[in-house]
Each structure stands twice: as C-alpha cells, then as structure tokens.
Write a structure and sequence with these properties.
single chain; 160 residues; mainly alpha; two-stranded antiparallel sheet; transmembrane; membrane; transmembrane helix; basic amino acid transmembrane transporter activity; transport
C-alpha cells in the first residue's frame, strides 16, 4: 500500500507521505500484537475458568497463564484441559488476524490503480518539466539506432 500512496503524491510531499506511512505501519504492528495478546489472554482465562475447577484452581490458572511451559509439568488430565484451552485461544487469535486482513483488503479497495510508467502529478505551484519530452525522444532515438555487432571473440555487444 505504501507504493500506491507514493505514486499518487507529488515530489515535494514524498517525505511527509513516507513518514506517515511508516508511522501507521508501526502503530499497526504494535497495536496488532497488543490486541492479539489481549484477545489470547482473555480467551485463555475464560477457557481455563470453564475447564479447571476445584480448590486452588485460581492459583493453577494463574500459573498456566503466566508460563506455558508449566503445562508440561501438570498431571495428564489437567494438562489436556490446559492444552485444549490454549488451542481454543490460539484459534481466536488467528480468527482475529484473518478478520483484520480482510478489513485491510477492503480498506485498500478504493485506492485507484495507477500505471507506474506515468509521471506523478505536479503540484499546482510547480511548472511541468519541459525537458522531459525531449529527453524521452532523445533516448528513444538512441535506442533505435543501437545495433548488435558480433565481434571476433564471439560475444555480442551494443554499438552506436
């Protein structure tokens, strides 16, 4: 998306566009990790509360939430309950990520396509580059006159 944004910006607005693009990318990354972690911990706590009951269950749930390696030290029946809770919580996080990817795709749809071979629009205060047409004509004329010659060493090389 950053390339789509930059193609539509005039040259004098590029630094601002790049800066804002990087800002929103960083905020999205940090926010995505934070929200995913919150979804995971919330769902994990709810699932563990549902599955593990009895005396000292709160202390056990807290230990399981704080250290995933603690699950391996649990008795097999409680270990299975904790693993199932982790499984359901991770599915919730992946569902959240899939929904966010879909939202990002939908938000991107209104961005118009633009061919990258065209020059960006100039600001109203800028004058269009008068030499750009003559430069492209000179380059085209040079490329049309270039021909390939086979030298005696067997390699081809362009000449003018």
């Amino acid at each position: 998306m950053i390339i789509a944004m930059l193609v539509h910006l005039p040259d004098n607005q590029m630094p601002v566009g790049i800066g804002l693009g990087q800002l929103f990318r960083g905020v999205g990354q940090v926010g995505g990790v934070a929200i995913s972690s919150a979804v995971f911990q919330s769902k994990l706590e709810a699932e563990l509360q549902k599955r593990i009951t009895g005396p000292d269950s709160q202390a056990l749930i807290t230990k399981i939430r704080q250290n995933a390696r603690y699950v391996a030290t649990l008795p097999p029946d409680i270990q299975a309950l904790a693993q199932e809770s982790y499984k359901v919580s991770l599915k919730s996080v992946f569902f959240f990520a899939a929904v966010m990817a879909l939202v990002a795709y939908i938000v991107r749809l209104p961005i118009p396509d633009k061919h990258l071979d065209s020059r960006p629009r100039a600001d109203k205060g800028q004058q269009p580059d008068k030499n750009s047409d003559s430069d492209s004509q000179d380059t085209q004329a040079q490329s049309e006159t270039a021909k390939v010659v086979e030298p005696s060493n067997g390699r081809s090389s362009p000449t003018m």
